[in-house]
Amino acid sequence: MGLTLIEAAKYETRLEHLAVIKTFAEGELLSWLPFMNIAGGGLFYSVEKELPSVGFRAVNEGYKQSYGVVDPQSEAVHLFGGDVDVDRSIVDLQGPEARAAQTEMKVRSMRLTLEAALINGDATASQGRGFDGLAKRLMPGSEMALNNGGGALDFDKLDELIDSVNSYGGMKFLVMSKAMRRQLNALAQIGRAHV
């Protein structure tokens, strides 16, 4: 399991690296995601598709033999970043803070771009240089509508959605836009007012 940015910062002693981690961790999404080092050009893993069957048996009977089904998957490593070039004369005139400010702005831009790609990334649109985000990875028909026929948001449907996620012992998070969060908060306020 990888480390979150907050946990990684506890082990970092170089000030410039701590500054980058701090700026990346300012994002609500990236601060919770685990990161890990990967050797090579990709990550290979298996997705569990079907569990093997189990059952009861009588004395001297055998169990029905079955196997789980897994789907091997892989993710390629993508290069992401940007150059920070500050003319030496600017540093001479304005001090090292000029370069530090440009570096911080570049890292903040990287964080915002990466967070957007995690949700709405499109490998085709980026000519294979980027990756598909969550919106592209959801299988058609697997997403659950939180509203009934365009009506108001429904906490029962939200609970069904949360229950349908198998986090394999990990934490579950709701990822949504700020507008959706405001709608959920408003719904929660209405619910509390009626209790």
Notable traits:
single chain, 195 residues, mainly alpha, two-stranded antiparallel sheet, 39% helix, extended
Q: Secondary-structure element sequence? A: HHEEHHHHH
- What does the overall shape look like? extended
The total of helices stands at 7
- Strands ordered across the widest β-sheet: 1-2
| Uncertain residue ranges | none
Distance between the termini: 42 Å
Short description:
By secondary structure, this protein is mainly α.
Explain what you see.
The chain has 195 residues and is mainly alpha-helical. It is built from 7 helices and 2 strands; from the N terminus they run H-H-E-E-H-H-H-H-H. The chain has helices at residues 5-9, 15-25, 88-94, 96-120, 134-137, 155-163, 178-193; strands spanning 42-50, 69-76. Helix 3 packs across helix 4. The longest helix is centred in the middle third of the chain and has 25 residues, at 96-120. The two termini are 42 Å apart.
Task: Show the helix and strand layout.
Blueprint: H1 5-9, H2 15-25, E1 42-50, E2 69-76, H3 88-94, H4 96-120, H5 134-137, H6 155-163, H7 178-193
